[in-house]
Amino acid sequence: MEYRLGEIEMKFAELIWANEPISSGELAKRCEAALCWKKSTTYTILRRLCDRGLFRNENGVVTSAVTKEEFLSRQSEQFVENTFQGSLPRFLAAFTAGKRLSEPEVAELKRIIEENGKERWS
Q1: What value does the mean pLDDT of the chain take?
Q2: Which residue range(s) make up the domain with 93?
Q3: What is the DSSP letter of 104?
């Protein structure tokens, strides 16, 4: 599955993640207010994202099939894979080039690396 959404699709997804479970009727109302969409546009985009496996619309209740955190994690993994041939060190080097990391940022990165290293090698 490709974890990429356009800007408007992402705003739509954010509405669902923030309000789920949500009735499709309530979602259409919120989309009209927040995105100036007609009901038909909401249902078209919802169907498209359900077909892609991101959301479910069962008996008029919309829920996520993929949490926001899972989506962002997979989207990040895809970006690193496509742009840096899967090399996290190359990504971090590029991300921090020309930017000085603060002490708390360095400490947080070390903590994340240590925790993930322990989980994989335990």
Answers
A1: 91
A2: 87-122
A3: H
